[in-house]
Amino acid sequence: MQAGFAGPPGHNLASASPPWALMGRMVPADRIALSSEQKQMLITSAAARLSGLDTAAFDAQLQELLLLLPDIRSRLLSLKPAILVELCSDTRGVAYKLVQLREMFPDANVSVIIAKRPTLLTAAEWPGVEVAHRKLGTMFPEGGLGQMVTQQPLLLVEDVDEVVGELERLMPGSGRSGRGLLRSNPDLLLAVVEAVAGSVAGGGREVAGSSRAAAAEAEPEAAILLAASRLAGGYGGVTHRSTPHPPIAFRISSPPLRPLPPPPLPGDSIALLLLWESLSRHIPTSREWLLPGVDVRIMLLRNPGVLTQYRLERKVGEGTYGVVYRATEVATGQTVAVK
């Protein structure tokens, strides 16, 4: 081998294929491990190109935005470049909107609200914020709106009247109004919206910029209602009524059983009560499946069909394959162990 070998005649090193192509291996982009800093640089670079600015000029705008919204830094990796460009290109307008939000909700953490829902400041959603503020003020005259919208910014996006109506329809005998339920736990809005979206054929709606699976993982109460929605669409004999907004509750072709009274529940189990109201009219069950020690949320998410096959009685152990429960098989009456 000769030192300084430059390749065959006519070979141009400047136009040579990259080494991984020469070796015959192509590495998929999703398998390249990048640090968070590298990912942020890629997103910033893409946004800069979209804005028509060079990277240095766009980075200066981005730093101005981060001064106004320090909590949004954790969301940079999930923001679409187009949204980032819109926010960075008008930091003076962003500042003005933040002042307006502070005036609307004096007791709110405005930075956290925008970190959870950056699109509130975009031209697509901002016009509805003032409308939502007036509606919420009428619905909850006792105040405390700042804490509510800080916990769940979707209150400024979704039609709260429809959500309250859906909560009341699901729980006619709960003794609590839909307004009261939403007041005690604003995240029920996400649960209802996600469950209704999941009941639509194809269910392709996104909420708060995340998929239904991600929303369920982030909010267990939403996961319960999502599981109920999937249960409604996943078993024979189940049909939805034809309405413009398909309800979460469902009916089975066979005659329904007599409704059971809701079981005693801890104060923070409102979503579980919603699920009970939806299912207890149609599924052979008893209060036993809600005995202490039985984590119904985990059981339901792992195997929604268990509610139609077994009456859960109590937790009996935990081993290599998960938590084991004692149950009675509905079809045969036999005592079995399920996990």
From TrEMBL:
Transmembrane segments: none annotated. Gene3D superfamilies: Phosphorylase Kinase, domain 1 (3.30.200.20). It comes from the Eukaryota. This is Protein kinase domain-containing protein. ATP binds at residue 339. The keyword Ribonucleoprotein does not apply. SUPFAM superfamilies: Protein kinase-like (PK-like). InterPro entries: Kinase-like_dom_sf (IPR011009), Prot_kinase_dom (IPR000719), Protein_kinase_ATP_BS (IPR017441). Residues 310-339 form the Protein kinase domain. It comes from Volvox carteri f. nagariensis. Keywords: ATP-binding, Nucleotide-binding. The keyword Transmembrane helix does not apply.
